[in-house]
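pls design
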């Protein structure tokens, strides 16, 4: 199954995208954003295989892809309707709409009526929050942040006395992991005021025991 394709944009009109890979194959993808022709792009893919056809649905982020795939597990919601809903409403709004049983938001996409919206709420209300664990960051070709992060962590001698950590505003966090992560990110050139709230949120949403884990997740979103 195809999970991600990167290459040169040959055609893009906000409905379809043709992406030419280094192998010389041009993949036609459903994609709701317009990209400059001739530019390089990396697109997360959900590969939908049917009896008589195969379709590629493209997304900017892994979270959007996972949201789409979760929606297609709902009875009465096909891939085109799910794709339209993700494109027009967004993952965060879909999560909130399901949790708060807001059918009005869920029926904004073509092909999704009140019955399908009710089924989404019934099927996904206990699952949809898991979507937040996936990165909402756009993948960039040639990005080397993760390799740099590992090197920074190994190079920095962490000391709790060297870093003054701001108040966590009610968050329960592992201060050691937070401080060590802050040091590593500062070594990579990121500003403290940008990293701290992001790291605090990730710590509260995930079970993290090592600074390497937190740095990896932080760099996915900055």
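designed seq:
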């Amino acid at each position: 199954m195809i999970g991600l394709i990167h290459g040169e944009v040959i055609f893009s009109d906000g409905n379809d995208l043709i992406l030419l890979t280094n192998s010389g194959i041009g993949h036609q993808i459903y994609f709701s954003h317009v990209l400059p022709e001739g530019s390089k792009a990396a697109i997360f893919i959900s590969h939908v295989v049917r009896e008589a056809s195969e379709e590629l649905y493209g997304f900017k982020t892994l979270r959007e892809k996972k949201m789409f795939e979760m929606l297609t597990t709902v009875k009465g919601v096909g891939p085109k309707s799910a794709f339209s809903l993700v494109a027009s409403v967004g993952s965060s709004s879909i999560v909130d709409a399901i949790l708060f049983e807001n059918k009005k938001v869920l029926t904004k996409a073509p092909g999704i009526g009140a019955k399908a919206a009710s089924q989404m709420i019934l099927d996904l209300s206990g699952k949809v929050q898991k979507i937040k664990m996936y990165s909402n960051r756009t993948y960039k070709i040639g990005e080397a942040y993760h390799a740099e992060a590992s090197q920074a962590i190994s190079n920095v001698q962490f000391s709790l006395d060297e870093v003054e950590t701001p108040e966590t505003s009610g968050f329960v966090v592992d201060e050691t992991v937070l401080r060590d992560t802050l040091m590593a990110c500062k070594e990579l050139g990121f500003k403290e005021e940008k990293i701290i709230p992001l790291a605090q949120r990730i710590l509260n949403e995930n079970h993290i025991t090592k600074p390497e884990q937190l740095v990896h997740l932080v760099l996915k979103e900055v």
